[in-house]
UniProtKB/TrEMBL annotation:
Essential cofactor(s): Mg(2+)
Keyword Magnesium: yes
Chain residues that bind Mg(2+): 255
Enzyme class: ligase
Aminoacyl-transfer RNA synthetases class-II family profile domain sequence ranges: 110-319
GO molecular function, one term: phenylalanine-tRNA ligase activity
Manner of cofactor binding, per the entry note: Binds 2 magnesium ions per tetramer.
Family from the record: Belongs to the class-II aminoacyl-tRNA synthetase family. Phe-tRNA synthetase alpha subunit type 1 subfamily.
Protein known as: Phenylalanine--tRNA ligase alpha subunit
Sorted UniProt keywords: Aminoacyl-tRNA synthetase, ATP-binding, Cytoplasm, Ligase, Magnesium, Metal-binding, Nucleotide-binding, Protein biosynthesis
Taxonomic superkingdom: Bacteria
EC number(s) recorded for this UniProt protein: 6.1.1.20
Quaternary structure note: Tetramer of two alpha and two beta subunits.
Length: 345
């Protein structure tokens, strides 16, 4: 009798507790395939009287539902078990997937080193925009109207407008102007940043490079303070015993102005290609802030004085790592970059 068979199989399904994935598969083969029991009972259902059909139709559908649900539940149970099992079989002694750890860019390393040295002397870090107007980049810094640095040869102009051109800054001195305009002394700050010059790119020149400038303005600041600060700086950067010498120079924004040389860090003064056998290499320009610049920024030049200095980070980096081609800094060739210190942040 169909009804008895349904009752018997229902009991079997309800008691079915698979012990393995194979049991689940056997269950499927027994009940759910095209020649399985469910199909068989539906075939038999066609042969019963219409009176029985009315009663058994619902029962048979419920039986089918039960078989399918049981199968799905059992399958899920063993699918996750199979996954766990697979993990256990993985060979944990195999070498891992290698991935390359990045390294700090040499310019970032050197900038950080410079900033750290001046921070210890109480200098704060100041930053400003890379797109500047004529006032902040030139006029406030005492550049005469016909100064060659304003020429198209050197400056990337963005917008020419009468009296106040907009351009990419040619030095970070513009940040000094912004800093002084915003307050009153004392100022003790360094300004690291990228600057732009309209020059042909070669091993020795690039259209952009990086500077760190420094500014110290207070009462009674003298050239001796400038020398002592920079002397300390190079002892920290290149090691104790590094000699310095100052040569008179000219910059529109400082008076007097000087360029500072250090004893060659490569040959220690004995003479090599880097120092052109002189034993000295130039590393920065400096001087006492021109009183006109202080006045332009709203600072009383009779009460206050200050010094400023500026250096190219590329130049300092070249002296440290002997990098002969400036273009390497911006090509992002990993063969070059991976030679520098890896630092996990
Ligand atoms: Zn040398």
């Amino acid at each position: 009798m169909l009804q008895d068979k349904i009752a018997q199989y229902t009991k079997e399904i309800e008691q079915f507790t698979p012990a393995s994935a194979a049991d689940v598969e056997n269950f499927r083969l027994k009940f759910l395939v095209s020649k399985g029991i469910v199909k068989e009972l539906f075939e038999e259902f066609k042969t019963v009287s219409s009176e029985e059909k009315r009663v058994l139709g619902k029962v048979l559908n419920e039986f089918k539902q039960l078989a399918e649900t049981k199968f799905q539940e059992s399958q899920t149970q063993f699918a996750s078990a199979a996954k766990v099992h697979k993990r256990e079989e993985e060979d944990l002694t195999l070498p891992g997937d290698g991935f390359q750890l990045g390294s700090r860019h040499p310019l970032s390393l050197v900038r950080k080193e410079i900033v750290e040295i001046f921070k210890k002397l109480g200098f704060i870090v100041a930053e400003g925009p890379e797109i500047e107007d004529d006032w902040h980049n030139f006029s406030a810094l005492n550049f005469p109207p016909e100064h060659p640095a304003r020429d198209m040869q050197d400056t990337f102009f963005i917008k020419k407008q009468e009296g106040n051109d907009i351009a990419l800054r040619t030095h970070t001195s513009s940040v000094q102007v912004r800093l002084m305009e915003a307050g009153q002394p004392p100022f003790r700050a360094i300004m690291p940043g990228r600057v732009y010059r309209n020059e042909a790119i070669s091993a020795r020149a690039h259209c952009f490079f990086h500077q760190v400038e420094g500014l110290y303005v207070d009462e009674n600041v003298s050239f001796a303070d400038l020398k002592q600060t920079l002397f300390h700086f190079v002892q920290e950067l290149y090691g104790e015993g590094t000699k310095v010498r100052f040569r008179p120079s000219y910059f529109p924004f400082t008076e007097p102005s000087a360029e500072m040389d250090i004893s060659c860090s490569i040959c220690k003064g004995a003479g090599c290609n880097l120092c052109k056998h002189s034993g000295w290499v130039e590393i920065l320009g400096c001087g006492m802030v021109d009183p006109n610049v202080l006045e332009n920024c709203g600072i009383d030049s009779k009460k206050y004085s200050g010094f400023a200095f500026g250096m190219g980070i590329e130049r300092i980096t070249n002296l440290k790592y002997e990098i002969k081609d400036l273009r390497l800094f911006s090509e992002n060739d990993t063969r070059f970059l991976s030679q520098f210190e890896t630092e996990i942040i």
